Amino acid sequence: MKKKYFGLNLPMLLILAIIVFIATYLGVLSKDLAGGVALMFAIGIILYEIGEKIPFWNTYVGGGLVLAFLGTAVLCYYKVIPEEYVELISSVNSKPMGVLNFFIIMLITGSLLGLNRELMIKSFAGYIPAILGGVVGAAVLGIIGGLFFGVSPANTVLKYVLPVMGGGNGAGAVPLSQIYERVTGDAAANYYGFAISILTIANIFAIIAGGLLNKIGEKNPKLTGDKKTLMRSAPEIGKGEEKFTTQIKDYTGAILMGLTFYQLGRLIADKIWDPLVPSVPIHPFAFMIILVALANGLGIIPGSLRQAAKEVQSFFTKNIVILVMVGVGVETDLHELVTAITIGNVIMALLIVIGAIIGSGLVGHLVGFYFVDSAVTAGLCMANRGGSGDIAVLGAADRMELMSYAQLSSRLGGGIILVIGSILFGSLM
Q1: CB of 192 within 8 A of CB of 173?
Q2: Separation of alpha carbons 377 and 397, rounded Å
Q3: Are 253 and 311 in contact (CB under 8 A)?
Q4: In a domain, 2, yes or no
Q5: 237: which of 41, 54, 176, 220 lies 20 to 30 Å off by Cα?
Q6: 249-285 b/e (C-beta count within 10 Å ≥ 16 → b)
Q7: Greatest CA separation found in the chain?
Q8: Nearest CA to 397 among 122, 136, 21, 63?
Q9: Residue 274 and residue 402 in one domain
């Protein structure tokens, strides 16, 4: 049987990709969603398939998904993709079209509604301690590294650990820089420029670590589960789980439901939370996670709709993820990364990521989680660039179905870091 590439044989894949590339370089590829998606798939599928076949890379670095991300970043850096189409891909992925948001919404909805209720409640109860364990581990190893390079413990925590563990750029580095300016009187840009550089280095380490942890889990099955759940007791909890059949129209209902949960999360974030607590912004995804979890816990979502949401999620994690990884690559500034690479910064960022892995993995194990899965979600998904970083880390770790926990790290965990930052900036600077 001939090898298929996302349903296409090799000649057909190459013909379709060549047509898209010719249209791109002649400037006739449509500058809309259709053109952007066509180019993203053409680039992404080819890079993905190459990445899946490169020895060592496909085993330890993250395979095709990571090559789709980094390969696209390299293509943009060397201007292989025309600038007008770089802007098109960026607009499709983030704003104004927002495929990235759509992707995350579907993953949150499906992963939470697909969880057994008892399992979901128990795992959420232990997740915040696992996040805090990662933060403590990151701080401890970061401080040890800082001492070797002449960086004080206070500066290590404020300028290295907080940005890395803050939930990304928009939810972490940006508001941290604003808190810094408000507390110290110094310009936010003076903090942000360094913070985003360290975060970018740590993000690369987090992605690579995701691939390594996946391989560790495969070689040591006791350290991980089925890549869909965190709790070691999950098989026992799920034994009596019901099975539901779905109809094609259930998928439409599941998509509308997920999108509505997100809009409700925005409503709470913008109109209720922000006016009450303006100093600690919380992302709408955090409120969305709480709402979907409540809906599942209270049993108000019909079984067929929950099953449909889970199947939609599966489609997105296996197919649409290619688009997202290309979009993330376009928005990754390799120049920014290169300028921040010094021996001290690289080693300190690496130690912070390792500390996050150890801290979240050990605390997660204590509260009943698998070490690998806790380290990936509560650790690495704190130590990356937020939503896009979560996707890259989970893709490398082959754990896309843990997106809800990853988003808890980036959003609620990021909110915790902002609270800590507000206190520490005032007391240590």
Answers
A1: yes
A2: 10
A3: no
A4: no
A5: 220
A6: ebbebbbebbeebbeebeebbeeebeeeeeebbbbbb
A7: 67
A8: 63
A9: yes
DSSP β-bridge partners for residue 369: 231
Domain assignment present for residue 359? The answer is: yes
pLDDT, residue 190, reads 72
The answer to whether residues 18 and 143 belong to one domain is no
Give the residues across from 8 on adjacent strands. 5
Structural domain count of the chain: 2
Among the three residues 62, 97, 132, which one is the final residue of a domain in this structure? 97
Using one digit for the tens of pLDDT, what is the confidence trace for 81-101?
A: 999 999 999 999 877 778 888
Domain that holds residue 232: 101-428
pLDDT digits (tens, 9 = 90+) for 142-188: 999 999 999 999 999 988 999 899 877 656 776 777 777 777 777 67
Instruction: State the pTM of this model.
Output: 0.73
356 and 254 in one domain? yes
Q: Using CA of residue 111, residue 304, residue 103, residue 227, what is the dihedral sign?
A: positive
Tell me how far CA of residue 205 lies from CA of 175, 208, 212, 328, in angstroms: 23, 5, 10, 16
Q: Kindly state the tokens that stand for 174.
A: 């940006």
Among 109, 56, 29, smallest CA distance to 311 is for 109
∠ Cα 169 43 95 (to 5°): 35
Strand partners of residue 5: 8
Would you say residue 53 lies in a domain? yes
Q: Where are any strands of DSSP class E within 171-314?
A: none
Are the C-beta atoms of residues 392 and 384 closer than 8 Å to each other? Answer: yes
Pair 221, 270 in one domain: yes
Mark which of 64, 97, 130 sits at the end of a domain.
97
1 falls within a domain: no
- Domain co-membership, 258 together with 306: yes
37 and 83 co-located in one domain: yes
